[in-house]
Amino acid sequence: MKLNKNCIFLFLFCIVLYGAFLGTIPLLDPDEPVYGETAKEMIATGDFLSPRIYGEFWYDKPPLFYWLEALSFSLFGVSTWAARFPSLFLGALTPVYLYLSSRKLIGGKAALRGAFICATSLEIIVLARSSVTDTLLTLTLTITLMSFLRKEYIAAYIFCGLALLTKGPVGFGFPALIVGIWMVLTKQFHVKEILGLKWYWGIPLACLIGLPWYIAMGHIHGSAFIDTFLGYHNVTRFVSPEHAGQNHYWLYIVVLLAGFYPWSGTLPGIFRRTKKWLKDRTSAFFLVWTLFIFIFFSLSSTQLFSYVLPMFPPLSLLAGMYLTDCEESGHISKTLIFSHLFFSLLTAGAIALAPINPDGGPIIRWLIVFFMVLAAVLAALGLKRGRFRAFMMTQALLILVFVLSIWGAFASAVSSLFTSAAIAEKLASTDRDPSIPLYVDTFYRPSTAFYTDIYGKALPEFDRRKQETDEKNEEKGVLLPGKETSRLPENAYILVQKKVFKNWPEEQKSGLTVLWEKDTALLLLKKED
């Protein structure tokens, strides 16, 4: 795969798109600071085998992303920016690789457009700017699956092993199932073709890369690791919701429409071509890949918007093929133009009606909305006139300004509502009696640890449903850090979310003094006379 100027431009564009204002907003609660704190504790303890958080062993994820964050901290120091740098870099590599690996399969123009669509899709952007594992998993799965399609089996099995080290069994399971379903649909599921996958030496190669860490962890930590990592984080979270009431069969339809912005207008055209594309070996592979990820997580009981990120690279290539087909055929459907305008104006409306205000007040909000509407109209005119180059350039400018506006103008509002770095700093500056223990809401605890090295103790859950969930996990041998107590002592400092405290039973609220309020938090003092 030979680099060219398109690769360099695409990579540099991604660095700007994902890197601008990267450290302005602190790590978003609760997930980002969990990864940052775990990597920080790896460096502090010198133990890069067994992940820890709050000084306790932590069996949530395999170590590859923690290792990359620890490397980033070692190079740049511990900071918000350094915690997100691995995702930024990996996110920028993904569309470059996508272009290089697909141009001989679908043509240079469609490949470049698909890679650019991948780079500029909102879900890709958000997670490339986040300290979470999903961007790394997406890159490793993309290389694995594209390598299988290109019959580059050494790379396929190496990155399959790295995917196993990134997020567990899905690193093996997803490629096997996607490739298997594709072979069945395209009538390739025969002994010769199956042997042609070189699995007899490829699986051992992948295991050689991915399994040693699991074997070592099982040997050192025994059933605590097996029950918590495999039992709870991989099986239980699929069949039982981690957050009751937050899983919906339609959730990923919304994620798809919003996450593919500003390219959501291509989705009706992609859908109409499904039957035709299933007859082609390459496009069928992209369809199976996309639909498998979408359906699998739609059926999962635990759902987060980030889970379906691996479907966006193949979906982007399908969108690139669709736009190129429209250009070459000279037929630009009214549905494409209407869909583009509809989703663009819908997003602009969401910004206009957002319940938070940007720095600079309403005038800034309306300037952002005006530009988004103007760009949507200009892009639609470019489509109508068959000027696809103008359309793509307008989309690039739109998403660049969108990112700079949202992560710049809305940084203060987002920080106060969705992060607790300022809360942690206020807690650190508060004079407290060292003889009185501090209990920290588990939602805030990762940030207080990351930004101030204050661990405190985990605040007990007084919501009966959550208590029942914790009790069931304990019965199954699941070890989750900070679940060692179910009641408060007579004297305690309590850092808690306002919305959580509001729903506490009245008997728990009695005898508490509010010491201060900050953003979404309360610091309370419980003290017996």
Commentary on this structure:
The protein is mainly α and 529 residues long. It has 3 domains: 5-329, no CATH class; 332-418, no CATH class; 421-526. The chain is built from 26 helices and 7 strands. The strands form 2 sheets. Strands 4-3-5-7-6 form a 5-stranded mixed β-sheet. Strands 1-2 form a two-stranded antiparallel sheet. Helix 2 (31-45) packs across helix 23 (445-452).
Structural class designation:
mainly alpha
User: Low-confidence spans: pLDDT under 50, at least 5 residues?
Assistant: none
Shape summary? globular
Query: Which strands sit side by side, in order, in the main sheet?
Result: 4-3-5-7-6
Beta strands, count = 7
Strand content: 5-15%
In DSSP terms (H or I, runs of 4 or more residues), the helix count works out at 26
The Cα radius of gyration reads 24 Å
Briefly say what this structure is:
With about 525 residues, the chain is mainly alpha-helical.
Task: List the SSEs and their pairings.
Layout: H1 5-19, H2 31-45, E1 52-53, E2 56-57, H3 64-76, H4 80-106, H5 108-120, H6 122-128, H7 134-149, H8 153-167, H9 170-185, H10 191-195, H11 199-221, H12 223-239, H13 251-259, H14 267-272, H15 274-277, H16 281-299, H17 312-329, H18 334-353, H19 362-384, H20 388-409, H21 411-418, H22 421-428, E3 438-440, H23 445-452, E4 457-458, H24 464-475, E5 492-497, H25 498-502, H26 506-509, E6 512-518, E7 521-526
Parallel strand pairs: 3-4, 3-5
Antiparallel strand pairs: 1-2, 5-7, 6-7
